[in-house]
Amino acid sequence: xxxxxxxxxxxxxxxxxxxxxxxxxxxxxxxxxxxxxxxxxxxxxxxxxxxxxxxxxxxxxxxxxxxxxxxxxxxxxxxxxxxxxxxxxxxxxxxxxxxxxxxxxxxxxxxxxxxxxxxxxxxxxxxxxxxxxxxxxxxxxxxxxxxxxxxxxxxxxxxxxxxxxxxxxxxxxxxxxxxxxxxxxxxxxxxxxxxxxxxxxxxxxxxxxxxxxxxxxxxxxxxxxxxxxxxxxxxxxxxxxxxxxxxxxxxxxxxxxxxxxxxxxxxxxxxxxxxxxxx
Length: 279
Prior knowledge:
Blueprint: H1 2-14, E1 16-18, E2 26-37, H2 52-64, H3 69-75, H4 83-93, H5 106-111, E3 113-114, E4 120-121, H6 123-133, E5 141-143, E6 161-169, E7 172-183, H7 188-205, E8 209-223, H8 227-234, E9 243-246, E10 262-265
Parallel strand pairs: 7-8
Antiparallel strand pairs: 1-2, 2-8, 3-4, 5-6, 6-7, 9-10
């Protein structure tokens, strides 16, 4: 995870100070890329604690296709990562409660994209089918950014990590994700771990070796009220990467995985560093 720490340092040294939607303000750089070879270990941040269950339950929620925050809670009751965005969404709608509906967030777009002719497209399943039947394709893509469903009254939060592509070569599977907006301190360690876990899951059900996660970021920013925390983090020495083990229960579908399948072995990390999430 040295690459991630180097990105933090680069933003502190070279970032432009910018106003933002939340009113907090950021120091930001435009256009960054990192590559994580999963053969080197699972890219879980070690210079602070990764909330593994929060991350993995959120990914399973996305995969389920749900847009309801109550379904996320049913996977892992202590997952509060979307609570502030949900409350902000209710406030924008002028509601006290809407049954947990978040609008068409990631899972809805991945599993139930609405086409112009009224079809409902399961992009994630189609991508997996393509890996199995046409692995040389350059069109193995899942897109979460639907311009017709990103308005403030339509969705709790428009997708930040909005597009990913899968690539097969030499019996190895790689994943390249584009992220339009990245909270480098709070969000990016989750994003790296989440898409690396997704890559492992897809590789398992397609009998491929998980290989490389490539992460491209548009607006890479550090919130101004988290600068001190970032400086503390980059002062810490990274520890060896852990290994991911997925329990083999004969999973044949992307929908077959459950939280207890995922074991992050030999995970060592420095203590947590807290910061406020900007909403």
